[in-house]
Amino acid sequence: xxxxKIKKEQLKLIFNRLKTSHKIIGPKINNDVIVLTExxxxxxxxxxxxxxxxxxxxxxxxxxxxxxxxxxxxDSFKRFVNPPAREIFAFKKSKKRxxxxxxxxxxxMSNEKSDSSQLAMVRVVQHSSSLPFLxxxxxxxxxxxxxxxxxxxxxxxxxDTFYDSIRRSSLIIGVNCLYPGDNCFCSSINTGPEIKxxxxxxxxxxxxxxxxxxxxxxVREMIDELPVENASNEDIAEKDxxxxxxxxxxxxxxxxxxxxxxxxxxxxxxxWTDIANRCLACGNCTQVCPTCFCNSSYxxxxxxGISKKIPELSGTRIRSWDSCFSTxxxxxxxxNFRPSRRARYRQWMSHKLSYWIEQFGSLGCVxxxxxxxxxxxxxxxxxxxxxxxx
Amino acid sequence: xxxxxxxxxxxIRWIKKETRDTTTYAIKxxxxxxxxxxxxxxxxxxxxxxxxxGEAPISISSAPIDNEIMHTIRxxxxxxxHISRLNTGDVIGVRGPFGSSWPLExxxxxDLMIIAGGVGIAPLRSVIRHxxxxxxxxxSSIQYQTGKKIILYGAxxxxxxxxxxxxxxxxxxxxxxxxxxxxxxxxxxxxxxxLITGLLNKVSFNPLxxxxxxxxxxxxxxxxVRELMLRGVPGEKIFISMERNMNCGMGICGHCMFGPxxxxxxxxxxxxxxxxxxxxIKEI
Lengths: 390, 284
Description:
The complex is a heterodimer. About 5% of the residues of chain A have low confidence. The longest helix of chain A has 20 residues. Chain A is globular. Chain A is of the alpha+beta class. In chain A, 29% of the residues lie in helices and 25% in strands. In chain A, a hairpin with a 4-residue loop joins strand 13 and strand 14. Chain A has two domains: 203 residues, no CATH class; 104 residues, no CATH class. Chain B is an alpha/beta fold. Chain B folds into two domains: 91 residues, Translation factors (Elongation Factor Tu (Ef-tu), domain 3, Beta Barrel), CATH 2.40.30; 132 residues, Nucleotide-binding domain of ferredoxin-NADP reductase (FNR) module (Rossmann fold), CATH 3.40.50.80. Chain B has a seven-stranded mixed sheet with strand order 10-9-8-7-11-12-15, sandwiched between helices. The radius of gyration of chain B is 18 Å and the shape is globular. The two termini of chain B are 35 Å apart. The mean pLDDT of chain B is 91. The chains are: A alpha+beta, B alpha/beta. Chains A and B meet through strand 6, strand 7, strand 13, strand 15 and helix 10 of A and strand 6 of B.
């Protein structure tokens, strides 16, 4: 692996170099929260911020002299590879024929407009830009989460072509976490804080410079144009000690030694009822979770698409994020398999910490702690798991 | 291969009313290329799609050897209600086939017991016809013809019995035992009255040499499995077809999760011992 270092203020050069060829997605402050969005300017990245996270709390404060001292906000990169709502196809139906106009089938990046009319109520993500994504500031947990989504959307029975095209064209610039968030527990499930693979470039913020690790040839050529110098052994030692320090400072842990069996044998544990008394079934945890992939498809019809004069019907089929906390998520004709909150929380946590292992070969949790921060009543997955042991 | 995320057109060839709320539809894929590529196994299902209404997972009730794809549908929700209003020649959207199938390799040199409750006979009719028509045409399925074959079928009343006119033909190859929960006074009924578990006492079978294919309401299947195992049928030889809220058909939407299984791709046909631990758990 190529390791170089660059002066801190020169990081901007990389940004400017890639700005023309990529749509840059990265952290930016919006309404006192760090979200992930398109960033046009290098200084949009919230340097020098820290956040205090707790159970159900999040506060941003300025005051750090470091560039990347913040950790993860509510957004995760899944919203760009698997958008909250997107059109699968548009249709027209006449008496003898259903015409399907599939959208984004070959390439998600194409400028081709599907011939569906504009949707009023549902904001559907359509990629009008022809530029591929550059994900800036991905943390180790986010990269791990993306790899889990690959297992779902690319390695299953059918490949999701939309996801695939975004994933293949995107570049990833990761940032090694040196200051853990208050709810982080990635080191105990081996997904972080150090980024080990799955990146095009990984940045570590040393005391006086940035250490850049180049993972793929696609960014290698760019490095030659930049005023970089080779990283010394001391630089690498500094990185290692900073990461070791970050691991040490991580406050939460999760014990994975007994998973998945601990969950299997605890499916009737009284604690589920106790959690259900607190859980609002709002589904926040599933929305902020970088690996939650559940979705629903439904038809969206405009009133103008239903006409009595012309026996024809037109509309679009939309796929949007859903949550196992929704009341009707497990509904079949004549009944609902999980009417109680107890069962729905159990489903979520069991899926993350045990079913996922059987389905995709690894844990469904990456230890980012978002579900703890953004749970309005502060349910803490790490603590609940501890209680299940008793 | 065609794209299983996009529905293709199929036209309704004929419609046969089975009971007051259940109807069999024979459909034909319109696109020639897809027609050629489309191949299913007994036990699999299609997603039937009505634009503007939605999709519903419906098992295929015909055999691969049949000339048509048939679906036997009971009116239960939006999609099935709208399907019930369609006529011959109307077009519907289809995605599939999806899911696992009845393990026909398991019944080589063994006896087969088919157990169905209510509309649960639909996916099993695919196996029945596969064996029956295959025998008549001396096609490949002849290799499964050695063992004894039993059908146990239970319905609410004689009027709710699906494929009632077809059972006499099944008797060419199967021992058929029928039961109803309640016999209608107006309806002439010669069969048994009572729960389907009671039929087990009327049948003579070798529990150690029998493979069971079962589909029906979850409660029925649970008590049936209990009875079968009490009689010595090993759990590994019991296969059940589950019903869940299938939405994508490919294990990416999460709706049909049953414990760690995606019913749409790991099922709907499961070996009992693979899901045993989750069957008794409420709201799993």
